[in-house]
């Protein structure tokens, strides 16, 4: 009764075969091949398997967890046994997240085909499910977890255990009352549909019902009631009549209500739980910004030490680091190059125990993954410690592997006066590194192979030496002996790495294609001493800011303070979860997740002076008061694995922006309720530069004796926030979704703070 079963699933031959089940070999390695019986359960959502020995425990997994099915020898494990089993009997189930693959060999090619096509049909069915079906299916999964003796019914003891698993601390009397009301058959146990009823009584949304009753006749919202709600509470403009019609059409489950152009409470709840009812404005999800401005007018999603998977002293270097960053929309990756054996340059964190990978493998990975999630340009930020010979090898790999995707020449052959745009550079990979001479000389073709200056513009060893000026001069002298190969220099067009002297020097001498790199501490110093100058500098050319070399644990600074100065390439350790990456993910979740976000106009125009330290001096200064009423939470995940521990949740709302806007406020904590805590707490923030503000919602488990535990978070730009009654769908520490955990808030009209 829970399953989102449609007639077409039941009539499918492949699925019928899966319901009967089959003996297959589960393969873990060349030497580990064991027979297991696999079977689809009749909820069409769960696969279970067990070994032939009687009494062995069944293992199960949900169709929800499977991302794809690969046919034939398409995994390292199946390739290793290719000589034993033909490809038409082999297939691989690929799971979501970090879980390993499941490699299987069927008894016959026909049986393999049944499972391959059956699984694909089930995955497609899950992907096409509506919100209501997803919820029913989620309830069904809980039922299975709690029905310990597998008799398809639940007694009161099993229901109590389930409540603990679901983070609900309910007194026995109240739980028993609900149990009795749901037990329509009076059998002392809940069967499937009775359990659904119990669950619905348990999750009754009093908070949403309150809002519904304000606008409805108690039973339903007429279309004009719904229009009033959209206008007065959700603060919508545009064609409200049409929008109300569309919402009824899309979210109302009752055909009878639809015929009356009305919405029931169930439909209202579905709308508020959908993407349209979420805090993030769906109109800002896709690409909506002007992509034809110079590159320096955008914030660019950027990664530091991209090759590292963990810390900077003895961490694992891996090509996987580049694949993960590019798949998250990162558009600037770092490649730290050193001389390797056999004339092949290597990539690793110099002078440390991190492992090493080949430069050519990094270039191949970038070539393969650069444009999977975004068509806009990728910048390879090269930190070059190689000899001239190996620099030539680097240039060969870049040219040979990337071909015409590597930008080698100026776009239209004429001497440009400003940087090209992301639109102009679609599908192109740019190299950021040292260059002999400038763009002007490359057009005339006169450049000598030179001895001028260091090869690498950024060296964390140099930064650590900064406290010892004597060391630094020796360091610089040693480095300046290194030469730059013409071949590698020729790979650099619009991103020539230069050493930064001063803003005054840049104003007079610097070219638009020159890029300076700053450590976070240097950038902070410039920000404090000359914020407006820094913003002005960044309206003409690119700046890169990277974490201090003292952060050996690969921790991150908050990128917001560098964006306040208009710095475009703010490089973070993508491998490290936490506030820095949350804020970065939040900014780049808009504009199609394409890795480029247009800076506000007051940071792009050379004649406007904007000082992030003094936002009130801006000509078009319009501060606002942001009010957020935190109403309730839904099904927050358990933090403590201990059976009987239940969350004491509080919500912290943080504003990240210019220094005057940095603020944090918390609700009170609610004891022992992670299932449906209610706060109704109102928080107020004055925001002086709304265009730069980010809002982060953090849920924590309150602990009076130690640091609170993290439960979930969600971060978004203030400019992408919808007003009115909204759900916030929480994310885990590493940024993945944790359905159905959410917060319910009300964001009334912003009022001017002037």
UniProtKB/TrEMBL annotation:
This is Phosphoinositide phospholipase C. GO terms for molecular function: calcium ion binding; phosphatidylinositol-4,5-bisphosphate phospholipase C activity. It is an enzyme of class 3 (hydrolase). Keywords: Calcium, Cytoplasm, Endoplasmic reticulum, Hydrolase, Lipid degradation, Lipid metabolism, Membrane, Metal-binding, Nucleus, Repeat, Transducer. Residues 458-477 are annotated as: Disordered. Signal peptide: none annotated. Its cofactor is Ca(2+). PROSITE patterns: C2 (PS50004), EF_HAND_1 (PS00018), EF_HAND_2 (PS50222), PH_DOMAIN (PS50003), PIPLC_X_DOMAIN (PS50007), PIPLC_Y_DOMAIN (PS50008). One of its GO terms (biological process) is lipid catabolic process. GO terms for cellular component: endoplasmic reticulum; nucleus; plasma membrane. SMART domains: C2, EFh, PH, PLCXc, PLCYc. Pfam families: C2, EF-hand_like, PH, PI-PLC-X, PI-PLC-Y. InterPro entries: C2_dom (IPR000008), C2_domain_sf (IPR035892), EF-hand-dom_pair (IPR011992), EF_Hand_1_Ca_BS (IPR018247), EF_hand_dom (IPR002048), PH-like_dom_sf (IPR011993), PH_domain (IPR001849), PI-PLC_fam (IPR001192). Its EC number is 3.1.4.11. The gene is plcd4a. Residues 604-732 form the C2 domain. Residues 134-169, 170-205 form the EF-hand domain. The lineage of its organism: Eukaryota, Metazoa, Chordata, Craniata, Vertebrata. It is a peripheral membrane protein. The keyword Transcription regulation does not apply. Residues 16-124 form the PH domain. Residues 488-604 form the PI-PLC Y-box domain. PANTHER family: 1-PHOSPHATIDYLINOSITOL 4,5-BISPHOSPHATE PHOSPHODIESTERASE DELTA-4, PHOSPHOINOSITIDE-SPECIFIC PHOSPHOLIPASE C FAMILY PROTEIN. It is found in: Cytoplasm; Endoplasmic reticulum; Membrane; Nucleus. It catalyses: a 1,2-diacyl-sn-glycero-3-phospho-(1D-myo-inositol-4,5-bisphosphate) + H2O = 1D-myo-inositol 1,4,5-trisphosphate + a 1,2-diacyl-sn-glycerol + H(+); a 1,2-diacyl-sn-glycero-3-phospho-(1D-myo-inositol) + H2O = 1D-myo-inositol 1-phosphate + a 1,2-diacyl-sn-glycerol + H(+).
């Amino acid at each position: 009764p829970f399953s989102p079963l449609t007639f077409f699933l039941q009539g499918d031959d492949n699925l019928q075969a899966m319901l009967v089940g089959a003996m297959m070999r589960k393969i873990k390695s060349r030497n580990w091949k064991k027979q297991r019986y696999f079977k689809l359960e009749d909820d069409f959502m769960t696969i279970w398997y067990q070994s032939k020995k009687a009494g062995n425990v069944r293992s199960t997994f949900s169709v929800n967890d499977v991302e794809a099915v690969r046919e034939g020898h398409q995994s390292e494990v199946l390739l290793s046994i290719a000589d034993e089993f033909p490809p038409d009997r082999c297939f691989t189930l690929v799971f979501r997240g970090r879980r390993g693959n499941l490699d299987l060999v069927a008894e016959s090619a026909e049986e393999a085909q049944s499972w391959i096509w059956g699984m694909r049909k089930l995955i497609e069915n899950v992907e096409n499910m509506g919100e209501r079906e997803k919820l029913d299916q989620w309830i069904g999964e809980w039922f299975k977890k709690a029905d310990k003796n597998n008799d398809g019914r639940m007694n009161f003891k099993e229901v109590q255990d389930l409540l603990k698993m679901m983070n609900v601390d309910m007194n026995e009397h109240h739980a028993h009352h609900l149990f009795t009301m749901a037990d329509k058959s009076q059998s002392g146990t809940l069967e499937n549909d009775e359990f659904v009823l119990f669950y619905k009584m348990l999750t009754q949304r009093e908070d949403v019902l309150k809002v519904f009753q304000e606008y409805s006749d108690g039973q339903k919202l007429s279309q004009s009631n719904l229009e009033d709600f959209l206008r007065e509470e959700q603060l919508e403009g545009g064609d409200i009549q049409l929008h109300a019609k569309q919402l009824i059409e899309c979210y109302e489950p009752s055909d009878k209500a639809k015929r009356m152009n009305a919405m029931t409470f169930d439909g209202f709840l579905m709308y508020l739980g959908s993407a349209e009812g979420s805090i993030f404005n769906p109109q800002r999800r896709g690409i909506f910004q002007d992509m034809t401005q110079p590159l320096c007018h955008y914030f660019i999603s950027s990664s530091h030490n991209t090759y590292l998977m963990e810390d900077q002293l003895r961490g694992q270097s891996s090509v996987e680091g580049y694949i993960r960053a590019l798949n998250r929309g990162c558009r600037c990756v770092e490649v730290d190059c050193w001389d390797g054996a056999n004339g092949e340059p290597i990539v690793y964190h110099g002078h440390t125990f991190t492992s090493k990978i080949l430069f050519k493998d990094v270039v191949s990975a970038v070539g393969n993954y650069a444009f999977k999630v975004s068509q806009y340009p990728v910048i390879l930020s090269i930190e070059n410690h190689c000899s001239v010979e190996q620099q030539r090898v680097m240039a060969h790999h870049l040219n040979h592997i990337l071909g015409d995707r590597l930008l080698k020449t100026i776009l239209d052959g004429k001497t440009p006066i400003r940087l090209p745009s992301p639109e102009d550079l679609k599908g192109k990979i740019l190299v950021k590194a040292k260059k002999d001479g400038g763009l002007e000389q490359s057009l005339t073709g006169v450049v000598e192979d030179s001895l001028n200056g260091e090869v690498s513009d950024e060296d964390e060893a140099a930064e650590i030496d900064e406290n010892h000026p004597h060391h630094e001069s020796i360091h610089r002298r040693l480095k300046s002996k290194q030469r730059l190969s013409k071949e590698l220099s020729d790979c650099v067009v619009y991103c020539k790495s230069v050493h930064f002297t001063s803003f005054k020097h840049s104003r007079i001498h610097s070219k638009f294609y020159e890029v300076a790199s700053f450590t976070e501490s240097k950038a902070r110093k410039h920000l404090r001493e000359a914020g407006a100058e820094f913003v002005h500098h960044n309206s003409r050319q690119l700046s890169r800011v990277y974490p201090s070399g003292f952060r050996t644990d690969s921790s991150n600074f908050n990128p917001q303070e560098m964006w306040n100065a208009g710095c475009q390439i703010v490089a973070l350790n993508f491998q490290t979860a936490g506030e820095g990456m949350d804020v970065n993910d939040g900014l780049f979740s808009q504009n199609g997740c394409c890795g480029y976000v247009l800076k506000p106009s007051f940071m792009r125009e050379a004649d406007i002076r904007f000082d992030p330290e003094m936002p009130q001096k801006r000509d078009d200064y319009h501060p606002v008061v942001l009010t957020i009423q935190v109403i309730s939470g839904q099904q927050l995940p358990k933090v403590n694995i201990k059976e009987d521990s239940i969350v004491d949740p509080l919500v912290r709302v943080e504003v990240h922006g210019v220094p005057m806007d940095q603020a944090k406020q918390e609700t009170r904590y609610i004891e022992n309720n992670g299932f449906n805590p209610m706060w109704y707490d109102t928080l107020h923030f004055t925001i002086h530069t709304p265009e730069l503000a980010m809002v982060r919602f953090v849920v924590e488990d309150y602990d009076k004796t130690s640091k609170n535990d993290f439960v979930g978070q969600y971060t978004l730009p203030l400019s992408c926030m919808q007003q009115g009654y909204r759900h916030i769908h929480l994310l885990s520490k590493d940024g993945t979704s944790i359905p159905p955990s959410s917060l319910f808030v009300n964001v009334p009209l912003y009022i001017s703070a002037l």
